[in-house]
Amino acid sequence: MNRPAAFLTDPPQSPAVTAAYQADLISDGYVNNLTRVWCWRPDVLASFQALRADLLADSGLSQREVAVMVAATAAARSDAYCALAWGSRLAELSDEATAAGVLQGVDSDLSEREAALAGWSRQVVQDPNAPTEAHVQRLRDAGLNDQEIFEATTWIAFRLAFSTINDALGARPDPQLAEKAPRLVREAVTYGRQVQAHTTMAPTDSGAA
Q: In its keyword annotation, does this UniProt entry include Oxidoreductase (predicted)?
C-alpha cells in the first residue's frame, strides 16, 4: 500500500483551495503535496507567498543568491522537498554540479557573496544564537550591505518556517519533482522524507483542478 502524501487528509473544497490547486496545475502540471497541506488555510498560504515576494521585490539579492540560500537552508534542515525543488532551480541558474555541491555543503563553485550567504544560511538553521558581530562583518566583507544582510536572514527564516511546517506534517516530495530534478541533485539529497510513489489521483482531486 502506498504511503500517503502527508499526514493530513486533503482539505475540503472551496474557491480558495481550487484556485491554489489550479495555480499549481498551471505552473507545474500537478498539485503539489505541500499545497494540499497548506490549503487547510489557503488564506495563510497566499499571505505567506505575498510576504516572501514583498521581501525580495526591492532586494539587491540576485535570483541565484536566493536559490543558494534556499538550497543551503533546506540541506541544513534535512528537508528533501525544498532541496529537490531549489537544488533544481539553482542548477538552472548555474549547473547541476554547483547545485549538488551546495546541497552537500560544498561551496567551492560559488562566488564570494554566494559562499558567504550559503554559510550564513547553515549557521542560522543550526544555531541562530551562535553568530557574533564578526560573522555579520564577514558578510559585509563579502560585499553585502546591512539591508541585504537583514533580507537574507529574514528569507532564511521564512524558508525555515516553510520547511518545518511541511516536514512536521509529513509532506513528501512529489514524484514529478524528483523525476524532473537533475541527476546530481537527486543523488545529493540523501536526507529527509522519501519521495512519494506515483499514485492514481482521486476523483475529488481532479474535480478540484
A: yes
Q: Which helix (H) or strand (E) holds 191?
A: none
Return the closest-CA partner of residue 19 out of 53, 45, 51, 54. Answer: 45
Which CATH number is correct for 60-195, 2.40.240.20, 1.10.10.60, 1.20.1290.10, 3.55.40.20?
Answer: 1.20.1290.10
pLDDT tens-digit series, residues 174-197: 999 999 999 999 999 999 999 988
| Phi, psi (deg, nearest 5) at residue 127 | -165, 90
The pLDDT value given to residue 200: 47
Q: Which amino acid is at 142?
A: A
**Domains of the chain, residue spans:** 60-195
Cell numbers given for 89: 532551480
**CA atoms of 22 and 140, how far apart (whole Å):** 42
Query: How many Å apart are CA 126 and CA 72, to the nearest integer?
Result: 11
The rounded distance, in Å, linking the Cα atoms of 185 and 177 is 11
Instruction: Give one DSSP letter per residue of 103-114, joined into a string.
Output: HTT--TTS-HHH
pTM assigned to the model: 0.91
Q: Comparing 37-41, 163-167, 199-203, which segment has the lowest mean pLDDT?
A: 199-203
